[in-house]
Amino acid sequence: MHYAKTWMIAAAICTAIPAQAAAPISGRWVTQSKDGVVEVYECGAALCGKLVKFLVTPPAGAGAKDVNNPDKKLRNRTILGMNVLTGFKSNGKEWKGQIYDPKSGRTYRSIVYKGASGNLVVKGCIGPICPAQQTWTPAS
Q: How would DSSP label each residue in 84-116?
């Protein structure tokens, strides 16, 4: 009988403690270079982020195309409205997915998390290391 009560108390405590989850990152973010706004949103079972606004118009104009994409079939798509973050899933403390850089036409593994200041920390990874880091601020 004593073991049954202990088990019930332990079960009640475990269900009362929520699972550890990465801080939500959905919303609109100004890139570190302050040249665009990326909106992070749910896309299926993951999160994605699309470029929703230019804060600095690119040299090719507001209708700039993805001319640096290695896939020739994608070079005619417009950068504005394009997903630059794809497939981000939480591992409990951060979000992991891929980031696309239209300036270079390269896709990188990426880690994203909300920093203590409320800003979004965005890391680009090459192999096992993530040397590139940016801080994105909430868009107003």
A: EEEEEEE-SSSEEEEEEETTTTEEEEEEEEE-T
